[in-house]
Amino acid sequence: MTKQQLFEQITQKNSYLCVGLDTDIKKIPSHLLKEKDPIFEFNRQIIDATAQFAVAYKPNIAFYEALGAKGWESLQKTIEYIPEECFTIADAKRGDIGNTSSLYARTFFDKSSSGLDFDSVTVAPYMGSDSVIPFLEFEGKWVILLALTSNDGGDDFQQLLVNSEESEIKNLYQQVILTSQKWADSERMMYVVGATKADKLLKIREIAPEHFLLVPGIGAQGGSLEEVSKYGMNKQCGLLVNSSRAIIYASSGDDFAKVAAQEAQLVQEEMAKYLQMYL
Amino acid sequence: MTKQQLFEQITQKNSYLCVGLDTDIKKIPSHLLKEKDPIFEFNRQIIDATAQFAVAYKPNIAFYEALGAKGWESLQKTIEYIPEECFTIADAKRGDIGNTSSLYARTFFDKSSSGLDFDSVTVAPYMGSDSVIPFLEFEGKWVILLALTSNDGGDDFQQLLVNSEESEIKNLYQQVILTSQKWADSERMMYVVGATKADKLLKIREIAPEHFLLVPGIGAQGGSLEEVSKYGMNKQCGLLVNSSRAIIYASSGDDFAKVAAQEAQLVQEEMAKYLQMYL
């Protein structure tokens, strides 16, 4: 999917919502456990219920591989089921030396090898250029590079001040954004940005004005979505805001899909407002 | 497996060789392709041929997941087949926020969930403490944290000079080693160190004298194994030196297992010499 196609979908649906499919066998409604593939059945119903409000889906790969071969089968069925127009993200945080990253790219992008055909994959930057570039060799596919994450440990290394060749002192996450722009432009690369604070978003938009940012961890409501939208949005929206648990586990009863749709719609309506205000 | 048990195996076998199972369906001898599970059949014969010369096996997870669910089945059979006394490494380079890392830990350590039961997993440090600690919650299991890698892109970020709280300026990889020692000691954590040069190994041994180092990318012969052994060895050996392609693909004919054994033995004999010289 091209950046332009993604933007068109955003304007059509008036939404930049990404639904995170962090599907945990221990958390899905119990009546699904009698199904042959409960994980896929849960995802199928969530996708049916939310596809009109969401522009992207992001299966968190850990949840599938924790179930071994069976989990990979559920993942394969899920990715096949997601409507063509939706952008798909393998949230896998992969990254290794060149020939190994090539195989990870094959895993998520080459259907003839693994059965999977995602639009994008999240990649960890620590091993540098040749750990990322193999993912870019698949035409039309995207790398979403970890830049700034909002978890407790995110500050351990990402906020360290680094002295780069260009002499100006920056935080490591800023250096990651700057260096990686040599590998691909905003048509092929996005950044994971856990920032919900204005100052960080402004800093990132200074050095990556055109890129899409994947923002995880926003709940169904609240000021943080407004803050992200106000300070993070660019002329092509430039935001995919993810919500996982607040949508998919909004109800644990038989009505889980209906309630998920309601939650997704609430977020979409808020997003429609911000698109009008800040685009 | 405890550090002491690993050391005992090293002294018994006179070896600190780790055989990397980077098993590629495109590279294995063609006569194996008629087998029901060619990947497992290749691994089985390699393991039988090399187990007396190797103390560890390291399946590179990318090679298995690139084949989807089928690949995970081959991986499961392989890990079950590796002799009990050998240390097993899931070379997966995982790392994510806390609840997701918990699921990755379950993937590689909890046989009842995924079918896999590795002794250790390689983890990427970029997301910090809570991306690593969940792996340590499995008793008796190890984290092998990426520190310094020798790939082309390794220098992009790992060599950056950082200003940490403790004021002294260090390279990022040194900071990773220092910070991560707050999370676990040398009984539970090892480091991936691609260094083959004396100066880097000496720097690392200054700040991590007791830890095991997993050193990838050493060929069957040559000065580099000597350099690693001379400058990297500590009182409990403290080294696992990996060789993948130079052993498993030493022959592409029917005799692949026999030739792999010969190559593994050559490395083992060189290691026996260094154990006598430097331990």
UniProtKB/TrEMBL annotation, chains A, B:
Protein keywords: Decarboxylase, Lyase, Pyrimidine biosynthesis
Domain spans labelled Orotidine 5'-phosphate decarboxylase: 16-260
EC number(s) per entry: 4.1.1.23
Enzyme class at the top of the EC tree: lyase
Keyword presence, tRNA processing: no
InterPro entries from the UniProt entry: Aldolase_TIM, OMPdecase_type-2, OMPdeCOase_dom, RibuloseP-bd_barrel
Pathway field: Pyrimidine metabolism; UMP biosynthesis via de novo pathway; UMP from orotate: step 2/2
Substrates-to-products reaction catalysed: orotidine 5'-phosphate + H(+) = UMP + CO2
Keyword hit for Lyase: yes
SMART domains in UniProt: OMPdecase (SM00934)
CDD domains found in the cross-reference section: OMP_decarboxylase_like
Family affiliation: Belongs to the OMP decarboxylase family. Type 2 subfamily.
Protein name: Orotidine-5'-phosphate decarboxylase
Source organism of this protein record: Emticicia oligotrophica (strain DSM 17448 / CIP 109782 / MTCC 6937 / GPTSA100-15)
Source lineage: Bacteria, Pseudomonadati, Bacteroidota, Cytophagia, Cytophagales
